[in-house]
Amino acid sequence: LLVQEERENGVLLIFSEPNQDDPLAEKKKAIFSERSINLVFHLRDKDLASPKLKEGMLLEKMIRAARVLQLNETEWYFMEDDDFGPFSPRNELEALYSIYCIAHDLLRSASGENVEILHALHTAMVDKIDCFSNGDAENIAGVISTGQAERRLLDWATAQGVKSKLNIAEFEGYGRGSIATADLNVGDIAVEIPKALIICEDTVLRSDMRRVLENIDGLASDTITLLWSMRERHYLESEFRPYFASLPKSFNTGLSFGVQALTALEGTLLLEEIIQAKEHLRAQYENLSSTLFARNPEIFPPEFYTWDQFLWACELWYSNSMKVSFPDNKLKTCLVPVAGLLNHSLYPHVMHYSRIDPKSDTLKLYVSRPCKSGQQCYLSYGPLTSSHLITFYGFLLRGDNPYDTIPIDLDLPQLLDPDNQSLDDTDQISHMVRGTWMSKSKQNKYGLPSRLLAALRTAFLDENDLRLQQQNLRHSIVRFLPSFLLFLLYIALNMVFV
């Protein structure tokens, strides 16, 4: 994220431009250019006073730059010209925490006066994150679980090397979750799990299923782990027995909705999503049942591989799995005991948890904002829509979900130059709409995203208007070109003299 240069009168922090692997890289660069957002920040001695740094424009400019760097597609699409953020709780916490990490990491190698400067930045970011946390209304009281299955799970996990500052709790109306057993500050580890305890494809390939599964072409790793868990759930001698014993008998996701629930959803996009998902799973099951299960009953006992058992395993992996990057840089879908108990929130405590530390060979879940003792500790499942959460997780968030969008397909006429090259990108954007009350723009009174409005205006152009629009765009380019060339000449001359 950053390059640091030490100066005699301070520290120069240079935020790196968006990585080319980022699908929004060019769009983010355009925002930096259009809004004149600088990525270079000079922290001087005069900025040392933490209150001054916290309240001044220097820190605000750093946060604005970080917000843009952390944008996802939905946040970018609904970003308006007069909106500098916050763009969403996720984006804000990512931005604040990224600057905190910069200060925290640089402090380790800082020396002299730069220690004071970076410490001031570090303190200011902790204060900013504290202010962000105060806006979280999701403080639901929980009661520590006293069930035998939960106690055995934690005892087993501890014996296997899990280090945790969390306990299992019951939250009325919400079910199970994780509660902090001590105050967790920004950057603390909430839970640390050995790699050996993480269930993934490698776990399956150590079992007797390997000789059957490795000879089947085209069988996805996710399917392999799903099939293994269907049998392992019933295996009394399983090394993961305490984990499987702690899992619910039913997950109650949208995939398990009965006729009455589905009838209530008639005419909604959610119903279509659930039906499509179930049809896909049913077809997958029928294919596996007629081939793999029927030919290898000794490996796939019929009583463990019914449709209901298959659906349960699908719900388990949909609602509890995590994407984890292993030391060999392979990204694998995994079940992570204990960590899977953390619930999702728009105001999560844990944002980053996807990479195994090669030094400790463990998966560490750091908190990006404080979590007080007795408070539920949340994890971010990602920028998911409510329909996705209901279908695959079985719950709905309280309040407005900024990722609840409806895609809109528009057949737009292209504005072309004489060489038939597109002069604008309105036809290349995936358009969407969401609740207009979420718009913070003072310029746009409709509450609709400006990118959608621009596309709609283009869509309703008649032939004469379209021709005139193309001419205006060409003339704009011609008028702008001399000024642009002079600007490049000015930059070149300055570089020569410098």
Characterize the structure shown.
The protein has about 500 residues and is α+β, with helices and mostly antiparallel strands. The chain is built from 17 helices and 16 strands. A hairpin with a 5-residue loop joins strand 9 and strand 10. The protein has a four-stranded antiparallel beta sheet with strand order 5-8-13-12, with no helix packed on it. The model is unreliable at about 415-425 and about 475-498 (pLDDT under 50). This is SET domain-containing protein. InterPro entries: SET_dom_sf (IPR046341), SETD3_SETD6_MTase (IPR050600). GO terms for molecular function: protein-lysine N-methyltransferase activity.
How would you summarize this macromolecular structure in one to three sentences?
It comes from Taxus chinensis. InterPro entries: SET_dom_sf (IPR046341), SETD3_SETD6_MTase (IPR050600). Helix content is 43%, strand content 13%.
Keywords for this entry:
three-stranded antiparallel sheet, transmembrane, globular, membrane, SET domain-containing protein, 498 residues, SET_dom_sf, 43% helix, alpha+beta, 17 helices
